[in-house]
Specification:
Length: 123
């Protein structure tokens, strides 16, 4: 079978059409049809040129909860979506950078800096 074989091309086209239909049914495509193309946090507007930077966030964090009315979705830009996930991690007690977390560190890379500099001056 070569690339110019009509039956192979028919199979490729059929597969491409099936994949396109699956994408149309995805919650991302549905959300883009329901909501205006703008970030729900920062208000940035999107066009076809930069639409790939607009993402769907599940409000309840359950990716299997996809109601037809889009009630569990909001459109966020990549940056705001990432920020939401970081906030969720911090609320759960992981990934935070609070003063209390820094106080628990056991390694102090500059603890001997003064003595190391003094030794270097002497040599």
């Amino acid at each position: 079978m070569t690339a110019s074989d009509p039956s192979k091309l028919d199979l490729i086209l059929a597969a491409a059409r099936r994949n396109a239909e699956k994408r149309k049914q995805s919650y991302g495509d549905q959300a883009l049809k329901i909501y205006p193309w703008m970030c729900g946090r920062c208000g940035r507007e999107f066009t076809h040129a930069n639409l790939r930077e607009l993402t769907v966030r599940h409000r309840d964090h359950n990716h299997d909860n996809n109601p037809a009315d889009g009630g569990n979705w909001e459109l966020l830009c990549l940056y705001c979506h990432d920020n939401e996930h970081q906030r969720q991690l911090e609320a759960a007690g992981g990934g935070s950078n609070t003063r209390d977390d820094r106080a628990r560190a056991t390694h102090s890379p500059f603890a001997n800096l003064k003595s190391m500099l003094a030794e270097k001056k002497q040599s």
